[in-house]
Design brief:
By secondary structure, the protein is mainly beta. The protein has one domain. It is built from one helix and 15 strands. It has a 15-stranded antiparallel beta sheet that branches. A hairpin with a 5-residue loop joins β14 and β15. The chain is globular.
Length: 297
């Protein structure tokens, strides 16, 4: 059974704001029409889209050890083998689903090992102008970057029929996201996907600047440092498809003047198949808190 997942990341997946350093002539400025909550919500949606793209690649790569097949997902993501060595593939997007038009391409190439099933096999994933245009939210993302995926456990999803077996992939790399053609985010990615016969669990163990369990960290569209932690592993089940049933991400944006902004995103908060999530945004300086529930795309 084919599964695609949305995380939030990252995969899912975590939120926050846009502000500049206190030494700038425009310190910690945010557009007046955006509240801290609305900015956090937009960033959460962006993170979900990014993690969804990562998970789509992982799902295609994991279902078959050599990827000897062509398939198309509901957003037109066609997987095609390049050459005759079974070591390089391309995913080309050209479709629309859930009010999201998706285009661009992702190249997957085996760079270590004889095949994708080997323990320790590594492949490089190159994102080239993967564009996600959400007409409902008037939000456009353009993704570029490179990831290295290591098959920690060996095997593939066909191996999940073996009692007690878990398929484990480690994913590290970097990415940039252009947002509405006006601003750019950059970050480092560090996550682990663990599949069983009934679920996918996403965890993270990156560390930077005193933060732990980081799934991504870097600089947001306003030039501020951010850190996204998975404090409770994010879980997806076969029954719920791409919707998370559990998990917590904490996203911290460093803002020297206005106060650090911490967003806690609880996935699967409705207690069933994660049709929505809840977020709480706290300004560490003013102690102001805001909450909101929103749909996972």
């Amino acid at each position: 059974m084919k599964r695609k997942f949305v995380v939030f990341v990252a995969t899912a997946v975590s939120a926050s704001a846009m502000f500049l350093s206190s030494c700038s002539k425009t310190p910690d400025a945010v557009p007046s029409e955006d509240s801290e909550l609305s900015v956090a919500t937009s960033d959460s949606d962006d993170n979900n889209e990014v993690d969804g793209s990562v998970n789509d690649v992982m799902d295609k790569m994991s279902s078959d050890g050599t990827l000897l097949r062509t398939e198309t997902d509901d957003c037109g993501g066609s997987l095609i083998k390049e050459g005759t060595t079974n070591k390089k593939y391309k995913i080309t997007y050209n479709g629309t689903c859930n009010e999201r038009a998706k285009s661009g391409e992702i190249t997957v190439e085996l760079t270590k090992g004889a095949n994708f099933r080997e323990i320790g096999a590594e492949w490089t994933v190159l994102y080239t102008n993967v564009t996600i245009n959400n007409s409902k939210k008037n939000r456009k993302l353009v993704l570029n970057g490179t990831h290295t995926v290591t098959n920690v456990s060996g095997g593939n999803k066909n191996s999940l029929t073996t009692a007690g077996f878990s398929l484990i992939h480690k994913i590290v790399g970097s990415m940039t996201a252009s947002i509405n053609d006006t601003s750019t985010r950059t970050w480092t990615l560090n996550r682990t996907n663990t599949w069983t016969s009934t679920s996918l669990t996403v965890s993270a163990d990156g560390e930077a600047d005193g933060f732990k369990n980081l799934v991504r960290w870097g600089t947001n569209k306003a030039g501020n440092k951010f850190y996204t932690e998975i404090t409770t592993p994010i879980v997806f089940t076969v029954a719920c498809g791409k919707k998370p049933t559990a998990g917590v991400r904490v996203h911290t944006v460093i803002r020297p003047v206005l106060g650090d902004l911490v967003t806690t995103q609880t996935l699967g908060s409705n207690g069933s198949c994660g049709d929505d999530y809840s977020i709480e945004v706290e300004n560490k300086k003013s102690k102001r808190k805001q909450t909101k529930s929103s749909s996972v795309i």
